[in-house]
């Protein structure tokens, strides 16, 4: 680290320090195999859908050719079940030779040639969660070096078959080992998920210093129940989680399941909107070869992505929880802008929710509103009541511009309102002397 950077870093509070590998200043985006393709290694019966180099090549081609890469979806991440059951003669992990005949290095090259990145998976216990060889403490250095030699760009370190003491040693050790290779490798730690996700067991200050992202909670499944369960946990614990996040260090509520089988279009918009509010990594786990145009439109929504990718990297929060089942989420964005999400937990019919920006803590002013999923725009004063119609399990998402500077009439009105001798006709801005 340069001296200036060091001074700057030490001037910040400890909670704002991030892993010093320079990567993932905004939440990483891409594709991850696990939720959709699991540990399907049955290539004889299902060559198109098994965990093999063909699957990752197919997904890379889709990312590069169908407009995903340009939007920021650049990681192609291998999860469990990629390796051979045996290490090689030199003690290194090796890919299953039948399913990955070209090997991982060649796959990484394939990604890099297309402006994409490759992620890989390991586990700091005796075995991965799927029963493949693990990276016990004594293997950390050699495995980190192997991944760097293969020119891998991201590494997810799972925690099955390890205990708390081993994790406490292993996660920081892997961080050092990856840094020592000299290759910037985004580091995803599952550590907090194995320790209940909350202090005092989980030290988010430390995590921010050693990992770029971390799984805090259980695995996502292809269902609305699962998405809702994750959303609830993350927002119930928002006061602990929000300060942990920032450029280079992200809470990871797990993959996007938009484009799979379990979510309706409204629920898909909800997942996209809430993941954007949470500054969550956007790893899709779906089949990009067959994805519906509806799901693609949601995942490729530029405004939702730019909210997710806001350079300030401040994780948003739930600000309203109504008895009616309506909840409002807010995230501050660059240049005094913000995002709002109105979410309905209801199951009956679209709910007409009435409020105003003032009630949502917005200060005096006039705001330009951009509706993320309908592209409609409007202008709202902080005091103007509005109604949003929110579908069951759905959202309305807004990008809210910085408040416009008060115009002369407003300034004039404010001054004069304080004067006992004058009355203001507010809507016309004209004055009348008091009798
Ligand atoms: C754990 C992780 C998942 C996935 C599987 C693979 O359950 O949390 O994300 O990596 O292991 O076996």
From TrEMBL:
It holds the Pfam family Melibiase_2_C. It comes from the Eukaryota. GO terms for cellular component: lysosome; membrane. It is found in: Lysosome. Keywords: Disulfide bond, Glycoprotein, Glycosidase, Hydrolase, Lipid metabolism, Lysosome, Signal. Residues 313-394 form the Alpha galactosidase A C-terminal domain. Its main location: other. One of its GO terms (biological process) is oligosaccharide metabolic process. Its EC number is 3.2.1.-. Residues 1-18 form the signal peptide. It is an enzyme of class 3 (hydrolase). GO terms for molecular function: alpha-galactosidase activity. Homodimer. Belongs to the glycosyl hydrolase 27 family. This is Alpha-galactosidase.
């Amino acid at each position: 680290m340069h001296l200036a950077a060091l001074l700057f870093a030490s001037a910040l509070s400890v909670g704002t320090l991030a892993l010093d590998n320079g990567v993932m200043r905004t939440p990483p985006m891409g594709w991850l195999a696990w939720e959709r393709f699991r540990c399907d290694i049955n290539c004889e019966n299902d060559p198109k859908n098994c965990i093999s180099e063909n699957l990752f090549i197919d997904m890379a081609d889709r990312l590069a050719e169908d407009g995903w890469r340009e939007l920021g979806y650049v990681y192609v991440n291998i999860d469990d079940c990629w390796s051979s059951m045996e290490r090689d003669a030199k003690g290194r992990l090796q890919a299953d030779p039948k399913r990955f005949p070209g090997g991982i290095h060649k796959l990484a090259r394939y990604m890099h040639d297309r402006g994409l990145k490759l992620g890989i998976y390991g586990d700091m216990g005796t075995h991965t969660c799927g029963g493949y060889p693990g990276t016990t403490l004594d293997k950390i250095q050699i495995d980190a070096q192997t991944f760097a030699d293969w020119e891998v760009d991201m590494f997810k370190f799972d925690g099955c078959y390890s205990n708390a003491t081993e994790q406490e040693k292993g996660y920081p050790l892997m961080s050092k080992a990856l840094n020592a290779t000299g290759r910037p490798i985004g580091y995803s730690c599952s550590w907090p998920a194995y320790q209940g996700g909350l202090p005092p067991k989980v030290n988010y200050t430390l995590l921010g210093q050693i990992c770029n992202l971390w799984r805090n909670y259980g695995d996502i499944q292809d269902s609305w129940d699962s998405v809702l369960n994750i959303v609830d946990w993350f927002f119930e614990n928002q006061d602990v989680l929000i300060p942990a996040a920032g450029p280079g260090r992200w809470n990871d509520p797990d993959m996007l399941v938009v484009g799979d089988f379990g979510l309706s279009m409204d629920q898909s918009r909800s997942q996209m909107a809430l993941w954007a509010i949470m500054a969550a990594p956007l790893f899709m786990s779906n089949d990009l070869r067959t994805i519906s145009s509806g799901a693609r439109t949601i995942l490729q929504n530029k405004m939702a992505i730019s909210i997710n990718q806001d350079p300030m990297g401040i994780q948003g929060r739930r600000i309203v929880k109504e008895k009616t089942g309506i909840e409002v989420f807010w995230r501050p964005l660059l240049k005094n802008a913000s995002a709002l999400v109105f979410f309905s937990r209801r199951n009956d019919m679209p709910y007409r929710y009435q409020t105003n920006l003032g009630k949502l803590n917005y200060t005096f002013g006039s705001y330009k509103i951009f509706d993320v999923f309908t592209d409609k725009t409007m202008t709202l004063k902080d005091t103007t009541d509005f109604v949003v119609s929110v579908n069951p399990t759905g959202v309305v998402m807004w990008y809210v511009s910085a408040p416009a500077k008060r115009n002369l009439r407003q300034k004039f009105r404010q001054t004069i309102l304080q004067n006992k001798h004058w009355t203001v006709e507010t809507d016309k801005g004209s004055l009348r002397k008091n009798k």
